[in-house]
Design brief:
The protein is α/β, with parallel strands linked by helices. The chain is about 30% helix and about 20% strand.
Length: about 220
């Protein structure tokens, strides 16, 4: 039997965050979405709160799980590591588990091998904003790996194809690959928003890994 939890999603209006909070609400959890402003269209069963991650002490209340789904782009560029360090501190103080939406290039090709961002160059066609985002995600993961506070954290890296401009289909399935990137038989690494959210909620409801990174793909 699944125990319902109090879940706070920071960055709940983005692609990953909105998928996660919808899946959490659908499963009956008590969900609070925090973003800089309350969206015009809210999600039924979700409490929307306006707060700034960098400037405010967030209303985490009695949250069991805090999900960080902030995009390190536009006005957030260059601030992700600092913002998530603060969020980690607030989650620890609240006694909550911290689950962060990670980056694909932080994964490894093989078990024990280097992380892709450390050993491989980005193709020239990759936008600079994506490269910067990848580097920020690696900085966030490095901080988590160096944490000695005992914070219960999970860094969930989606597949390479995961974004609002390549949303994919809700297939109702996924695979988890720990720190190793997953590819299908055709060499493709992809996951849709709904299936990524399903993986995150399954791990929240029935934890299998703690203070670890996992990758999610088909």
């Amino acid at each position: 039997m699944t125990s319902l939890k109090k879940i706070t999603v920071v960055g709940g209006t983005g692609y990953a965050g909105s998928a996660i909070l919808r899946e959490a609400a659908k499963r009956g959890h008590a969900v609070t979405a925090i973003s800089r402003s309350v969206p015009a269209e809210t999600v039924e069963g979700v409490t929307h709160v306006a707060a700034d991650l960098l400037r405010d002490t967030l209303p985490l209340g009695e949250a069991d799980v805090v999900v960080g789904a902030v995009s390190p782009r536009a006005e957030n560029a260059g601030t992700l590591a600092k913002a998530y360090a603060g969020l980690a501190g607030q989650a620890r103080q609240a006694g909550a588990r911290l689950v962060l939406v990670g980056g694909f290039s932080c994964l490894r090709r093989t078990a024990g091998g280097p992380r892709m961002i450390e050993a491989e160059s980005f193709p020239p066609e990759v936008p600079e904003a994506v490269v910067i985002e990848a580097k920020e995600n690696m900085e966030v993961l490095s901080h988590l790996l160096a944490d000695t506070s005992g914070l219960d954290w999970l860094f969930v890296s989606p597949a390479m194809e995961f974004s609002s401009w390549m949303p994919g289909e809700d297939l109702g399935r996924y695979r988890v690959g720990d720190e190793v990137a997953l590819f299908d038989a055709d060499g493709r690494s992809a996951i849709s928003g709904p299936d990524y959210a399903r993986a995150v909620l399954d791990e929240i409801e029935h934890p299998t890994r703690h203070r670890a990174q996992i990758g999610v793909a088909y």
